[in-house]
Amino acid sequence: MNKFRMTALAAAVVPAILMSHSVSANEADQPDPADLTRPKTFVWAQAGYSKDKIKGEKSYDTGVGKITGGLSGNFTEKAQYMGLLEQGFDRKGAANTRGRLFTTFDTGNSVMSRVGLSVDYIRHAKTKDTTAAVGVIGKFDANEWLAFYPNLAAVEAKVGATKEKSKGYQFNLFTSVYLNDKGMYSMIMPQYTDLKDVTVKKLEVSLGAPLTADAKTWWDVKVGYTKNEGKKRLATFESDGAELLFGVSHYF
After folding, report:
1. What is the pLDDT of residue 83?
2. Considering 7, 71, 134, 206, which has the largest number of Cβ atoms within 10 A of its Cβ?
3. How far is CA 158 from CA 49, 115, 137, 212, in A?
4. 3-class DSSP state for residue 14?
5. What is the reported pLDDT for 235?
6. Cβ neighbours for 75, distance < 8 A, ≥ 6 positions apart
């Protein structure tokens, strides 16, 4: 059951990418740290702490860390792409390896200004469990300081010794808030995942700002809470967990 939980938790589709600094939220030609539909080439290192509790068992602490790299480019002036590779770590070494590819498009619409498509694949180093997802995301601008990014994805997890399939969907509602005109932002990220054997409810809140005068290096901090509830063959399974991550990213 723990193996299933680890894979289900990883089934996020659209990456919460920290972009490099923009002097103003209105400067469309500048990268935007809170815009999930505007990719930029970057490297990003995170480290922190997590605590998990499985019902009927003792809680346990796990050291967490991630190294992520992303390479972006343009198909046209209105269409961009990004490929990403992420390696996670726990106290025993390598954990999840994740590959992602997505594209974004300007719509020319004032209500939904951008849309994106993504493919996401995750493989756990020890259990060999995998998760694959295909999703869509849109950008809705409330005003120059607030934007919403609804995201819907189809998810398939293969877990356990027999790699039994568990299919379902995931919904995210990313909310980006610009806190000042120097690039500081906050993101609120509720998530709901419904697979055949488990449901996952998750909430993350992050804060980020530039570290250097040229605004190419950023700091970020993220706190998150996750609750997992089993269904059908995992009806007795229940767990929750919390994490705190600190990160530094550099953009090119």
Report:
1. 96
2. 7
3. 27, 29, 24, 43
4. coil
5. 83
6. 81, 103
Q: In the structure encoding, which two tokens stand for residue 39, read together?
A: 């990719």
Other C-beta atoms within 10 Å of 125: how many?
16
**Residue 243, both tokens:** 């994490």
Query: In angstroms, how far is the first alpha carbon of the chain from the final one?
Result: 41
pLDDT at 164: 83
Q: Which two tokens stand for residue 161?
A: 């010794």
Burial zone of 222 (CB within 10 Å; 0-12 exposed, 13-18 middle, 19+ buried) = buried
Is-contact 184 177, C-beta < 8 A? no
- Could you count the other beta carbons within 10 Å of the beta carbon of residue 238? 17
What single-letter amino acid sits at 127? T
Q: Which residue is listed with tokens 């993220």?
A: 222
Contacting residues for 58 by C-beta, under 8 A, at least 6 apart = none
H-helix or E-strand spanning residue 99 = strand 93-106
pLDDT of residue 222: 96
CB atoms within 10 A of CB 200: 23
pTM of the model: 0.83
Mean pLDDT of the chain: 84
3 by DSSP, 3-state: which?
helix
14 token code pair: 């659209």
Compute the average pLDDT of residues 54-73.
86
Tokens of 174: 């990313």
